[in-house]
Amino acid sequence: MGYYASVLTTATINLMAILSMYVLMGLTGIFSMGQAAFMCVGAYTAGMLAVRTSLPMVVVVVISVGMGMLSAFLVGLPVVKLRRDYIALITLGFGEAIVALLNNLSNVTGGANGINGIPRKMNIYLALGVLAVLIFLLLNFKNSKFGRHCIAIKNDELSAAAMGINVPRIKLLAFVLAGGITALSGCLMAYNTTFIEPMAYGSVKSIDWICFVFVGGVSSLTGTLVSGLIFNLLPEVLRVFSLYRIIVQGAIVLLIINFMPQGLFGEYELSDLVKKVAGLFKKKPAVAGGDKQ
Amino acid sequence: MYYLQLLINGLALGSVYSIIALGFTLIYSILKFSNFSHGGIMVVSAYIAYELQSRFNLSFATMMVLTAVIGAVLSWMVQFIGFERLRNKKSNIMLYFVSSATLGIVLQNVVVLTYSSTFYAYPAFFKPPFVNLGQFTVSVTDLMMLGISIVVITLLMFVLYKTRLGIAIRALSMDTQTVQLMGINVSVVIAVTFMMSGALGAVAGVFCGINYVLTPQLNQYVFKGMMASILGGLGNISGALYGGLLLGVLEVFITNAFGAGLTPVFTFLFSMIFLLVRPQGISGKIVLDKV
User: What is the ipTM of this complex?
Assistant: First the structure.
């Protein structure tokens, strides 16, 4: 696999994880400071199954996503009824706990050495294909009844509850969904890098993802995708400045938050533009025909 | 007797967690958001304290006071860069989150860039490192931590409950608009609260540095403070105090039983179960959303 293809594959898989952050923050307004831990869960499930058993990749992917959702369910259960801050803090603790667990159960997980020799089964086409399916599903999800409930909760939890939305249930569902997506990306990442270690999934990674989503525009799927792509590819282009990456990134995020709080894209989606353009073409004959409406 | 010894160690550790949790809770109670930049302030002040100490060979007391001042200034700067404009524009609370998390990473990264990830250690401040109190052997660092924490916390409680400033801060934690109508300068009170929180963070940072070793990863200890404030009831000052002590004692006993490596796992499980059983925390009062 060529250099560019490999960079793009990794970026695509990271984008999936960032999409899960979009489900949490952009749609539901939940903060997860330890979302990378679910990536870790997915990656380790996939890694251990792929190395120790001869299950086909599809089965392994399904099991990892299931594990991600299960752990998200267990973590989310006590905190969805409380204020948002509790989810942020508890997921932070979960992230620490997962890393500590993996480091210490060295006979099962390989400890700090991680797991080696996972077969490489990812390529750029497969990654892009999965991402495309995910984007399609999320766009539909955003416009579904459930998605609208989520957006209502993001805007105001109390009024959402007053409108008869079961807030804890929707929050838990969104959290489980996001956990599943993150685990999927972790699983694919394990198949892509062929090597996994626990330290790569700390809270810094989760905070990075939060920043990406906010720069792009927290309410826009398109914005999330664009800024995720930029921030994933930029470090590759500007390798010389890699030391200052976090500081530059922090400066960008602070500027955006202070002067463009809606992010680069606000609430606009690419599909809105497509619809508008399509609408222009559709309306013309209708006006010309003089339809009575 | 052995367990009593563990209890003493746990209380010493817990008092540091309490200081971290108090600094975190002060901000939480007035602005209603989790201040993730607290860890960054802890790390930077601990490194500045190390730098001052090694350059000028200060005494322990001078160093602590200077560090607290530095932490206060730093925290004010963080407030100015990160939250001043957001507050004036009455931004969504989510933006405060992101701003504080970003500032936290940036502060930590400044330390990584300046000192790289090498470990540093403070000089040994206390000449006989251990003292015997009856049947117990207590490290002097632990005793100092406990003592200074008690002094700092008493000072904080005095300010919060006996002075006009304290009344302003506590009123602000209830309702910003009414406080403004009462003729209190909200910006000043918030700035002062940030400075108090920064001073607490700096003291805790130096303690963590003395107790373990000085690394940029020191900001991990802010998570303990956050856990402590969850246990105590988020946004509750006395809750943060008890939560810190509880977490400290708990950690020492868990480490004794299962080893240090797995401690985060058991603390996490404990706090999950605790939240299921008693979500309102030890103190029983947490900040609730109002219409």
Answer: 0.83
